[in-house]
Amino acid sequence: MNIFMMLAPMSVFLGLIGVGAFWWTLRHGQYDDPAGDAARILLDDPDDRPL
Amino acid sequence: MAVTYGLAPAPDLSAFLKQAPDAKPRLDLLVVGARCAGCLGKIERETAALAGVEAARLNLTTGKLTVTFSDAAAADPGAVIATLSGLGYAASPYDPGLAAQALDREGRRLVLCLAVAAFGAMNTMMFSVPLWAGLFGQELGPATRVVMQWWCALVATPCVLYAGRPFFESAWRSLRVARANMDVPISVGVLLTLAISFSETILRGRDTYFDAAVSLLFLLLIGRWLDHQLKSRARSAAADLLALQAPSAVVLGPDGVEHRRPIGEVAVGDLLVVRPGERVPVDGLVESGFAELDTSLLTGETHTLDARPGQVCRAGALNLSGVLRLQALARSEDSAVAAIARLVEAGAQSKSKYVQLADRAAQIYVPVVHSAAALTFAANYILGLGVREALLRGVAVLIITCPCALGLAVPAVQVAASARLFRRGVLVKSGAALERLAEVDHVVFDKTGVLTEGRPELIDGPPSAVALAAPLARASGHPLAKSLAAGAGPGPMALDVVEHPGLGVEGLIDGRRARLGRAEFVGVTGSQVRETELWFGFEGDSKVRFSFSDRLRRDAAETVAALKAMGLTVEVLSGDTPTAVALAADAAGVSRRRGGLSPMGKADIVDALQAAGHKVLMVGDGLNDTAALARAHAAMAPGSALDASQNAADLVFSGEQLGAVVEALKVARRTRRLALQNFGFAAAYNAVAAPAAMLGLVNPFLAALAMSGSSLVVTLNALRLRSAK
Question: From the CA of A21, how many Å to the nearest CA of chain B?
Fold first, then answer.
């Protein structure tokens, strides 16, 4: 049971990192142009920074 | 009719440059026609290569190009637009506006709530698995169970309180005005579940529903977000149309300088300049200049009117030939157009009374769910179960009957439908529009610009003369001459060409002086024909006549046949002369037609049809159609229509194909069928699940499984729309 007492908070913490990362990408406009992002990968010198 | 994409380069485009205090000046442009990676690369490369441009970035999803300049002095918006049009893309300045940004903020908030709910659902599930497993015999030790329950509570509570806010706020707003919308049972269910689970945890009970509360929110938020996507896409599409056609007028100042002003700022008495290809902005008196005016969007008539000094022009008429100077007789609100605009408003109001399918279902659903839950609680309490147990069963009813079909299924079907129509070039303005379209049983077409292409085509004239007149026709910008030139194909141009506004062109062909234009200009007297015509002749030689007519859209007859096959009645209502209407209607295969109608006449016929119990789909493009478009049960307009008509329409289709109407009707009907299927499924599911919950036969595991399963089935059913032919 001791291992559980460590794993439970760790898994919640990792989940929180995921939510935080998602929040960061959302704030930086990474979902503003899905069609453009899909097309940009085909360009020779892709400039894939979010606007 | 004349394509209204792309404004003529205005003299003062620099007004559209935006400069934040500590940032580079930037220009937002709306680019039409960019679809693929090739377009994207070409546009960004060519624009960024211009002098003074620091960076160019195209958003392929919204079609907006943001250009950043190194400094304001070097900024040349005109060059950017010219470059884009050289590449083959129409572009016009665009003002993002505050409303769109506020909407976007709402969308981001929903996505964030969705992310939090997803996190909460997954992590709560993780701690719930051992609890569920305990229900199948492998009993957890009481201490472990309590730890697991507390972990669930710790994760689920903040997540529910945060992610549930869109529902709580909406429920609170509706409760304050003593109404109950769909969010009320959702909020009550979720919050009660949370409270009961808490008390169970504290009292060392075993019936906690934390996982159900969070995953319920997660599923409902998906529906809410899809709904929001549909609305914001429709709204931004409507805003794009307005931005593209931003009505402006060229006003001649006292100093003789031309200014481009918003149409609302034009005062009575202002001197206006209207160039060929532009529309008359407000009603005005011609001061100087001669021109031919195309009033087909105003009246539906195909032949042109002449404007000469002393004559009054009505707002909305298209100038075909010479430069006109007008004295404004009325402000934009008082122009003849405004009377029609008021009719449109009245129509829009009557349309907003339409109750959407989901709302109609909610009106029945909400009271039923609430009373079922209350009844369960009361009955179980009276039968001696104790408050705790009775409350638990009441909440189980609330959860298990969660209105997923209403909250998720209908938006999912409508999003799939509008995405499908969007790919086909049809823009859907709202989900309600699709529902109304599905109910239609009578289709009314306008003639000019809808059944027909709205462009004059050469129908009669000696073929040898076409080749002779072509060099002169190529030198003219007049639509009739252009059509003649197109008929002759590429070739040489006449020399020494002089264009006489409102009359015709004159020039040298093989060293001989020739004229192309109106009968009296070319030297023919006594021509009484009311048809659209053009005369041609060499000096001192005999004259030949070309006549033009508006050609039927290529798939008009096919479309009418398909509509009839679908069991719809097809009718043509037009402002054009009855003979012209009969000609076009016969060619398209429509037997019910009427011509010579006024705008009010069209609206009255539509009203009469609807009073007789028909649901009318109006397809029209002109200002004379807008009243009828607004009154009809559903309305469509081609992308070439006037902005007033596009505003009045529920759907706008682009391209040359009238078949878009058939496609839209088919998709709308299928959407309705799928939505009804989903309701049917939800009803069947509730009929089984609700009694089980009332009798207390449902444990947390089954409740979560049943609820998620029903949501999944309903969503997958919606997605069938994407693959169907």
Answer: 11
